[in-house]
Every structure is written in structure tokens, then in C-alpha cells.
Design brief:
It is built from 10 helices and 9 strands. It is of the alpha/beta class. The protein has 2 domains: 31 residues; 198 residues, Alpha-Beta Barrel (TIM Barrel), CATH 3.20.20. The longest helix has 31 residues. This is Polysaccharide deacetylase.
């Protein structure tokens, strides 16, 4: 019968034999393996109770064939062009006082823009835009400006479809662009967008009204200096009072950008011909 050779004593004066060390290692390895398996099983059980497939985080729905429109989705922030083209966009309308002011200014200067409309407001204020969007483009900005990235894919689709139908009915043009509220892109948003054959349009520059309270001219100068070729510029025709700074300076912004050689185009024109020319603007 052999005897283990004693190992040097530790700080507490207790020695560790070879068998004891090997046995402890085996127990430790077994515990790690069991722990990993337990964690994996626990995660699987937890996931079974989360709305993952078809939920806000997932861009896939179920295990059957998916209705995914053209099968692909484009998400854009900016157009790759060296030509001095800029797309002016307005979110959140239509609303009284705001939208008519914007349309009047754009009409005066013969400038096209892209309006990302809220469906419920389109229904409620149809008279503000009916017959006034001939030179402009419309996009979908949801039914009631909820954060779509927090909704399940089916709910996002229902929301956008409802808004789509309202915009098409009132304007006579079905929207082909989507800008989700706050620019939030959850998986459910992407899935609904591809089903509806939308392009998702974000922005590369936005108004900074809070930095220029009561200074529309200063704000206009700031935006004019920040625009580069291919810019998609975010503005609003709704919201808190401080946003009026941008609208009061809109004419100066248009004049300033034209003085720099810029031509105004809609988003779709910008994306369709990023290196081409366009007359007017």
C-alpha cells in the first residue's frame, strides 16, 4: 500500500496530497461543466418565455416561409456624391401653423422637400397638405409616433400599414420611404419595412435649435456651414416651440445653401442619381 508524498504545508499548516489535488480538480471541472450546462438550460428556458421570434429584437418571424417583399432592405443616412446636392426633410407633421409655414416658404423659393408624415395627423389634418405636395415627396413616420423599436414585428407592421394607407389616400401617393420615430431600428422595424418594400431613411445632419434660442439667423448660418454634398438634413414641422427657430430661419438657410452652389432635391432623387445632375431647385 503506497503512501502519498506530502506536499509543502500552506499558510495554515495543512498539506495537500497528490490524490487530494487531483480529486479537487476533477470536482472543480465537473462543477464547471454542470454550471455551464445549467446556465445554458436556464437561458433556454428563459428565452422560451421572451417574445424573441417576431419580437422587438428579432428581424425574423416564426419558422415558416416569411413574407419579405423584395427580400432586401436599404438603410441610408447620406448619399455618396461629390455634387452639391442636399435633401431637406421634415418629420412629425402635418400640424396647423407648422406645416403651412414650411410649405409657404418652400413654395416661395421653389424648393422640393421630403415630408415624413405621421398617419394619424394626416387623417386629422388632411386639409393642410391636400393639393400642396406636387413638388414634394412623402414618407411614412408611423401612425402615432410611438417608438416602433419597442413593438413586436406584427404590431410594427400593423402600425406602418395603417399609416401607409392614410398617407396614400390623402396625398394620392403611396410612400416608399420610412423614417422610424427617433431613428430607432429594432428588428421588428426592419422586418416590417422589408415587407412593405420601404427604404429606411435616417439623416446625416439635423437642426440644432436648442443651441440658438431666439437666433434664427445664427442657426441658419450654422446649418449652411455644416452641409456637405449628399447631406440628408433633418428638420421638423411639429414639436416644442424652440423648433420654430429653424422654421423662422428656413428662407435664410435656403438662400445661404444656394449661394454655396447647392441644389435641393427630394430624398429619392438624391438616392436615385447620387452623381447626376438635376435642373431647378
Amino acid at each position: 500500500m503506497g503512501v502519498d508524498r506530502a506536499e509543502p504545508a500552506g499558510p495554515g499548516g495543512r498539506g495537500w496530497g497528490r490524490r487530494r489535488v487531483l480529486g479537487g480538480g476533477a470536482l472543480l471541472a465537473g462543477g464547471v461543466a454542470l454550471g455551464a450546462a445549467g446556465m445554458s438550460q436556464g437561458a433556454w428556458l428563459a428565452d422560451r418565455h421572451l417574445p424573441l421570434s417576431g419580437g422587438p429584437a428579432s428581424a425574423t418571424v416564426g419558422n415558416r416561409r416569411q413574407d419579405v417583399g423584395s427580400g432586401g432592405l436599404q438603410v441610408v443616412w447620406h448619399a455618396p456624391t461629390t455634387r452639391r446636392l442636399v435633401a431637406l426633410t421634415f418629420d412629425d407633421g402635418p400640424l396647423p401653423r407648422w406645416t403651412p409655414t414650411v410649405l409657404d416658404t418652400l413654395d416661395t423659393h421653389a424648393v422640393p422637400a421630403t415630408f415624413f408624415l405621421v398617419g394619424e395627423r394626416v387623417r386629422r389634418h388632411a386639409g393642410l397638405i391636400r393639393g400642396r405636395l406636387a413638388r414634394h415627396e412623402v414618407g411614412n413616420h408611423s401612425w402615432r409616433h410611438r417608438d416602433l423599436a419597442r413593438l413586436a414585428a406584427a404590431d410594427v407592421h400593423d402600425d406602418l400599414r395603417r399609416s401607409h394607407e392614410a398617407i396614400a389616400e390623402v396625398t394620392g401617393t403611396p410612400p416608399r420611404l420610412l423614417r422610424p420615430p427617433y431613428g430607432h431600428l429594432g428588428g421588428g422595424v426592419l422586418h416590417a419595412a422589408v415587407r412593405l418594400d420601404y427604404r429606411v431613411v435616417l439623416w446625416s445632419l439635423q437642426m440644432v435649435e436648442g443651441e440658438y434660442p431666439d437666433d434664427p439667423a445664427g442657426h441658419a448660418r450654422r446649418i449652411v456651414s455644416d452641409v456637405v454634398p449628399g447631406t440628408i438634413l433633418l428638420a421638423h414641422d411639429a414639436g416644442p416651440e424652440n423648433r420654430q427657430v429653424a422654421l423662422r430661419g428656413l428662407a435664410a438657410m435656403i438662400t445661404g445653401l444656394r449661394a454655396r452652389g447647392y441644389t435641393f432635391v427630394t430624398v429619392s432623387e438624391l438616392l436615385a442619381h447620387p452623381t447626376g445632375s438635376r435642373t431647378g431647385g
